[in-house]
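Can anyone check this?
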Amino acid sequence: MDIDIDQIMAWKGRSETRTDQVTAAPVRLLRATLDLPPDEAAGELPALWHWLYFLPSPRRSELGPDGHARRGGFLPPVPLPRRMWAGGQLEFMRPLRLGDAIRRESTIDDVQLKTGRTGTLCFVRVRHEISGPRGPALREFHDIVYRDLPAAGAPAPAYQEAAAGAVTQRVHPDDVLLFRYSALTFNGHRIHYDRRYVTQEEGYPGLVVHGPLLATLLAGLAQREFAGRAATGFSFRALKPVFDLHAFEVCGQRADDHAMELWIRDHAGHQAMAARMEFAA
């Protein structure tokens, strides 16, 4: 596929600003989606739940065939068909609280085009800086990867084995979980809810579990383990897709007194996501 490299690179440095308010309804609905009990005393937003806000809202006529907004707006017009959330790094400075008026400044921090074993890859890194009424709240680097469809007959990639965790949570993904999370984040990407599209157009065996959902489950596991301690940082990297066809395990192991190593272990024993969460003393 021909890619206009100069056009793609011209997006580097592009920025946008959004405002929102930390309202209670999305928090209540995500708790229900994750099968957590209601928390009537909730005040602070759990780590990563800021993804419930600043949602893009393109009109339906502005969507591409994959359900995402057509490319060439804030994100560069990369013509590769598969788009995935590859990972991210977050620094937490102050908690966000219900009722806060919040502001997010986003910048295309970097764009890289590479050729790997599976063909052409385009990596886009977005920097988000979120502030609230008490000042800067968090800084996030969001890594997106665009790639081509696998060639017919291409060998399956080799994946890393994952150990069982000292702390684990078993999750059975289903259509309802993926639909609810898509709805809460206003994510129209069809790989998460349209089985015909994901199998026939993108060649996956089943519905793809959202990377941010996996990361949210990992962060939740760590926050329960370090209950009462403020999170200071979180980083994660997606290593392979997880599908709705099998249960998976959310795993963790304390690294020391202020950090936890985390990973997703799929039904075949492979590591699908690796993460680390750090906490204040």
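Reply from J.R.: I decoded it. The chain is about 15% helix and 35% strand.
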